[in-house]
Specification:
about 65% helix, 15 helices
Length: about 425
């Protein structure tokens, strides 16, 4: 049951939180809500399930069988690396006061997050800071693993490990600070991103596109069939992503509240709208309505509704999910053929485009009855395009510098054999 406090006590608590924020520390120990804390812990688990096993199954089933285990290895390794980097430096860069671009150092090595004297984060004043820390960690993990879909079937595991660490510190943490910390430059402009349309999807989509371009296409791209080896695994992974997305979006309310329930409902509506519109587009385009297309459309709808989920009512969720389904479908169908960039699993066409669509449409469908509308389309586009440009340039620099020290992709022989055998000594089946 939520604990109620007097008006005077509430004002005193807000004053203490503000002073702590200015000093770069969490607010002092304060009454927290057991209900809110339990909700945030459940949502954190759901978001972690989006990565392991959700996204790695979704990706694995769409690859050739000779590379099906390699994406699992890359996803698990990335999860470990991002977790360690986040605990040491990333959280502090993202979620402590600093300037408009970066946070401070007060939470390096998670100092003060756990134990006697730990308090709450000003953005989530009803839960322990450790719960907020872990929830945001789950976001950092899934965001980088999304990028791996663009580099699948050719990137070395060693390169992925270093890429994960550098990208989390240089791209994800600063962008999260820009948008989700009150001192961030986009937050100060009122940029509306409830659950990661800009921070997660635009950033990962742009980075995936650049990473695919830097690595170059897979050998045989455009001339050899590269069909999914097991769509049932992909559907299972997509289902886990869909379920986990409720924690992703509804958990971003940072409390068990009416707004969280509304975000959960908007998420489901957006997903189903995207699935239906993708299926219709696919049927018009080629006369068939595929299982893969339906699930991909649901993911497109989920991506598009993510930034808007805590701001819109049902009509808005329907419209944004539908827009995501249609526009992502058109990009997936045309982008590779027109650019020649081998973004293996269409990370940019789904996440980059879907995130941009949802971010731009958020203020058009936002309702003041749900939450305050703080930005217009111009501010939304400025923020999304700035993040896209920054993520693209930073990713290019990271990979170019990293290439001087670590080979980025496997050699031709290993790629022909498949990364499962060549890098891990394991395989699903004798077929490739």
């Amino acid at each position: 049951m939520r604990r109620f406090i007097s008006k005077a006590s509430a004002l005193a608590l807000l004053g203490s939180a503000g002073a702590a924020l200015a000093q770069g520390a969490a607010a002092p120990a304060a009454p927290t809500s057991g209900g809110d804390t339990a909700w945030m812990l459940v949502c954190t688990v759901l978001v972690l399930l989006m990565t392991i096993p959700g996204i790695i199954l979704f990706y694995s089933g769409m690859l050739r069988s000779k590379n099906a285990l390699s994406i699992v290895a890359h996803g698990v390794a990335a999860t470990a690396v991002v977790t360690l980097v986040w605990a040491m430096f990333g959280y502090s860069i993202a979620f402590t006061p600093g300037n408009g671009l970066f946070g401070g150092v007060s939470r390096f090595f998670a100092d003060g997050v756990v134990g006697t004297g730990s308090g709450v984060h000003p953005s989530a004043p009803t839960v322990p800071e450790s719960a907020f820390f872990m929830f945001q960690l789950a976001f950092a993990v899934v965001t980088f693993v999304i990028v791996l879909g663009a580099t699948a079937e050719r990137m070395r595991l060693g390169a992925t490990v270093f890429f994960a660490a550098l990208w989390t510190l240089a791209v994800y943490a600063p962008v999260a600070h820009w948008v989700w910390h009150p001192t961030g430059w986009l937050a100060s402009m009122g940029h509306m991103d409830f659950a990661g349309g800009t921070v997660v999807h635009v950033a990962s989509g742009a980075s995936g596109l650049v990473a695919a371009w830097v690595l170059g296409p897979r050998r045989g791209f455009g001339s050899e069939p590269m069909v999914p080896h097991n769509l049932l695994i992909t559907v299972l992974g997509a289902g886990l992503l869909w379920a986990g997305w409720f924690g992703f979006n509804a958990g971003s309310a940072l409390e068990a509240s009416n707004r969280a329930a509304g975000a959960l409902l908007a998420t489901q509506v957006g997903a189903c709208s995207g699935a239906m519109l993708w299926g219709i587009c696919e049927y018009v385009h080629r006369g068939q309505w595929s299982v893969l297309g339906t699930m991909t459309g649901a993911i497109a709808g989920l991506i598009a509704i993510t930034p808007a989920s805590g701001f819109v009512t049902i009509p808005g969720a329907l419209a944004i999910g539908a827009a995501g389904g249609v526009l992502c479908f058109l990009c997936v169908v045309n982008f590779k053929a027109r650019t020649g960039i081998d973004d293996t699993l269409d990370v940019f066409a789904l996440h980059g485009v879907g995130g941009l669509v949802g971010t731009a449409l958020t203020p058009l469908f936002a309702s003041a009855a749900v939450a305050k509308v703080t930005a217009g389309v111009g501010t939304q586009l400025l923020g999304a395009l700035a993040v896209m440009a920054y993520a693209a340039v930073a990713t290019w620099l990271i990979l170019r510098v990293l290439a001087f020290f670590v080979p980025l992709r496997v050699d031709a022989e290993k790629e022909q054999v498949g990364l499962d055998i060549a890098e891990h000594g394991e395989m699903l089946s004798p077929q490739s």
